[in-house]
Amino acid sequence: MNVKNLKRSILAGIFSSITIGILTLLTYKTSYGVFLIASFGSSMVLLFGYPESPFAQPKNIFFGHLLTSLVGILVLYFFPFSLYIIIPLAVGIGVSLMIILNVTHPPAGGNPIIVIMGSVSLDYLINPIIIGSIIILIFGVVLNRLILKKKYPL
User: Fold this and answer.
1) Per-residue DSSP letters for 91-109?
2) Residue 15 DSSP SS3
3) List of residues 6+ apart from 150 with CB closer than 8 A
4) pLDDT of residue 111
5) What pTM was estimated for this model as a whole?
6) Where are the domains of the chain?
7) Contact yes or no for 71/122 (Cβ under 8 A)
8) Across residues 19-25, what is the average pLDDT?
């Protein structure tokens, strides 16, 4: 491992811990609601480890999470079928729409599963999806643009 990769991996780990730590504190130590979802952990890998990836760009992170979560909610409430039908259907629709709309963010592909298994409401789009994504992106800009002096977003 070269020094550049070592530095990138250490900073990615530190900023992932800080970002997820903030979301965890907001979730468990305030009364503002849920800010944390499992797919945000995967977003950390792209945002802090590979910010040059098209999948790590702000529009992809924000709209990828929003779109797939919305798809999960719509399928949950408007498709009266068994879970073993609506979960794969929602994931497939979400993935297709991310690609069609050019907002692909691979971690967001899991959001319909989270949404359907949790039977969430429309409020879920505000918190954790929109607010959580904005918090994640703020930390992404701080690390990539201000600390590492990278051109981010591209």
Assistant:
1) HHHHHHHHHHTT---GGGG
2) helix
3) 51, 52, 144
4) 98
5) 0.94
6) 3-147
7) no
8) 97
